Amino acid sequence: MNAGSAKVTCRRHVKAYTLCSIGLALGLTAACARSEAGSAADVIFAGRFVTLDAGRPEAEAMAVTGGRIIAIGSNAEVERLAGPETRRVQVPGVALPGFADAHVHVSALGEQLEMLNLRGLSKEDILARVSELIAKTPEGEWIQGRGWDQGFWKPAVFPTAAELDKVSPRHPVALTRIDGHSVWVNSLALERAGITRETKDPEGGLIMRGPAGRPTGMLVDRATYAVSRVIPAPDREQRERRIRAALRQYTEWGLTSVHDSGADLDTIAILKELLGADELPIRVYVMARGSGETAAAYLARGPEIGLGEGRLTIRSFKIMLDGALGSRGAQLAEPYADAPGERGLELLADGPLDAITRDASAKGFQVNAHAIGDLAIRRALNAFERAGITPEQRFRIEHVSVLAPADLPRFARLGVIASMQPNFVGEYSRWAEERVGRERIRWVYPTKTLLDSGAMVATGSDYPAADSGSPLTTLYSLVTRKGARREPAGGWFPEQRVDVDTALRLVTATPAYAAFQEDDLGALTIGRYADFTALSADPRTHPADQLQDLDIRMTVVAGEMVFGSPQTRESRRR
Ligand SMILES: [Zn+2]
Question: Which pLDDT tens digit goes with each residue over 245-274?
Fold first, then answer.
């Protein structure tokens, strides 16, 4: 990011340009350009723009000042705002409003970038990767990885400590499952965590056990804390390095805006520091952790909205009602089909759920409730209703994986946003039917059904708790109902596919709405931030099956290129 003095100078002119923009909208371009002579556009982008603005669906050029669009239209229309100092950038490919991801984990992505990535691997390959890393790691130090899914294995059963012990007798190993809700550990890790056959399951957690109550090496939800507590925490420098790496990764994926789901005070402090140094390359909408010191601090101080020209906002709380479906932590109204004695985990009881909902609401915060099982979803809706929330508050349910038909109309009625991760269909196609059985499976990830009911749906990836963090995979999954690995071949419950125009809104405009940013983001329109993503082709006409393979050619936030090809970078420097 080359923020520099130019941006600062231009911010002073934003008001004038907003007035000018109104003039432009009324067709008074010539007069407007004249009246602003001497303070012309900072930058003019030329190329092909798909605006997602019904009033002007396509454009050839865009003029930007102070990070906002002051003109968009034909070359001739935009050229009127050029001055001697105006920079020019030729945009490669096809530009769309910047991609947004309504559910990411910034810190966890940074961590993932520094540990083993186990996505899509067989158990043999995972053990081989662990062996390789052990060879380079001093004895006794932790070996960490993330992303495995037993759904890829035959048989698709949970792994054991004994399997890891064979390759790692002297290094403790913790391999987090793809959903982030369970961990596969070896015996040394169990020992370090102090988990024995006598250890009781913590509330909201499960220690999987074999004969005679012996822990097998699989820990679920709150039982994983015993392990995370004994892994040395990253210091401040490491945390900042990881967050920077994550933010850089987002720009490469074409994201201009992400919603960080469950940030703690340290993460928020680092984001603020980056913002202060003008080194926050994209917009981050923070869901602060809705428990502990983070919740206490933000309930005391209230929301922080639109810091740094709309780069950083902290105005919502993330609360966790249940676990994940893959590790049978999702809270179901009826037992699991493949574990008749189990109905999942309740991570937040109704009492504290009501308390945080009421307190957050009173202080002007949005509440975003992680709820995967049908009972957890119902409990979230009930709590929102009891608190008397209005549609204007835009409360959200994150994931909405197993929906009970009776709860469907409540989303539209209460104005509760369904924040969904379409790439989950890949993962769910591997094992969800085993978990919930024939009947309920038809109501797992019913994206189209929710849209048709009038519910607002915003989409994201949940990466690294998912197969892919790319918004192109989200787009592809929405349109094809296939996961990142192109499975299943015919799409998973293909009647839930949506058309590409709808899908494009779900990766741009509706996440903006879910963050109260629809006046500033989500379309390339005069007055909004100049955030856009240039792709190698127009997704509206590209074959649906190849949407995931489009290239990101350029990512621009507030008129500044944060990712792009070297060729383009050169032309900007001139
Ligand atoms: Zn998540």
Answer: 999 999 999 999 999 999 999 999 999 999
Q: Ligand 1 centroid vs 318 CA: distance in angstroms?
A: 9
**What global pTM score does this model have?**
0.87
State the DSSP H helix or E strand holding residue 104, giving kind and residue range, or none if neither: strand 99-104
Query: Could you give the CA distance from residue 243 to residue 256 in angstroms, rounded to a whole number?
Result: 15
For residue 220, the cross-strand partners are 182, 206
Q: Calculate helix-pair angle for 292-301, 350-362, nearest 10 degrees.
A: 30
Residues 6+ apart with CB under 8 A from 156: 150, 430, 431, 434
User: Kind of pairing, strands 552-557 and 532-535?
Assistant: antiparallel
Degrees, nearest 5: CA angle 544-558-456: 50
Q: Residue 397 carries which side chain, given as an amino acid letter?
A: I
Pick from 276, 314, 318: which is nearest to 298 by CA? 314
CA of 187 to the centre of ligand 1 (A): 28
65 C-alpha to ligand 1 centroid (Å): 35
Distance 248 CA to ligand 1 centre (A): 19
Q: What is the DSSP string of 524-540?
A: --TTSB--EEEESS-TT
Tens digits of residue pLDDT in 154-193: 898 999 999 999 999 999 999 999 988 999 999 999 999 9
**What gap in Å lies between CA 105 and CA 110, rounded to an integer?**
9
Residue range 397-421: mean pLDDT, rounded: 98
H helix or E strand, kind and range, residue 554: strand 552-557
Q: In sequence order, which residues have a C-beta less than 8 Å from that of residue 290 and are 6 or more positions away?
A: 262, 317, 318, 319, 320, 356, 360, 367
**pLDDT tier, 37 (very low <50, low <70, confident <90, very high otherwise):** very low
Sign of the torsion formed by the C-alpha atoms of 432, 225, 122 and 169? negative
Q: Is 14 exposed, middle or buried (0-12, 13-18, 19+ CB in 10 A)?
A: middle
**What is the rounded distance in angstroms from the CA atom of residue 537 to the CA atom of residue 218?**
44
